[in-house]
Design goal:
It contains two helices and four strands; from the N terminus they run E-E-H-E-H-E. It is α+β, with helices and mostly antiparallel strands. The protein has a four-stranded antiparallel beta sheet with strand order 3-1-2-4.
Length: about 90
């Protein structure tokens, strides 16, 4: 889970608030997966504020019921990012 921010007035986030990004990365090494997650968040136009948590998922049985689809997408495509936006009032 990466806490990301967008500059105020930016096209992604006119209010300048942020998002928590669930990053599902298919990579064999933890450090590489973390770097890829940060890269993909930045490629979407966001700045990485902090890495809030991380979990190594070794199979679909380790993912919670509502997130198995992201695990499978990452297996197939290499990555799946889920942005959970919040407004400045919520910050």
């Amino acid at each position: 889970m990466i806490h990301a921010v967008s500059p105020k007035g930016g096209k992604l986030n006119p209010e300048g608030a942020g998002a928590y990004v669930s990053c599902w990365i298919n990579f064999p090494l933890y450090e590489g997966a973390l770097e890829l997650a940060k890269y993909y968040v930045r490629a979407e136009g966001w700045s990485v504020h902090a890495v809030d948590s991380h979990t190594w998922i070794s199979g679909p049985e380790c993912a919670s019921r509502g997130t198995v689809r992201y695990y499978r997408k990452a297996l197939k495509e290499g990555a799946a990012l889920v942005f959970h936006h919040y407004s400045r009032a919520e910050a």
